[in-house]
Amino acid sequence: MSINLNAKLDELQRSDRQLETTVALCEIRSQLQELTKSVESCQSEVSEVKRDMVAIKQELDTVQHVKEEIEELREYVDRLEEQTHRRKLRLLEQVTYLNLVFFFFILKFH
């Protein structure tokens, strides 16, 4: 009888250990599922950040391009201002020359 009870006790202990193992495995599976969801969420966020970074880089490239165009326009305006200044000086010289010619003409025939 004691052998029979010992056998039953051993069987109960094995069954208890199997149950503990099953519960532990269920807990581990549950934690793995949570971790998997967390990793998937992180991957999704990383993908969003990457998309945002690509969009920002494109915007920066556009801004840089516009900045370069503005610089080119400034240089063009500077050249135009310089040309205009030279033309004004030339016109002023011509007007001065014509005034002198006119003045001498008046002096000569007056």
Automatic annotation (TrEMBL):
Domain of life: Eukaryota
UniProt keyword annotations, A-Z: Coiled coil
Coiled-coil region(s): 32-86
Name of the protein: Uncharacterized protein
Source organism per UniProt: Rhynocoris fuscipes
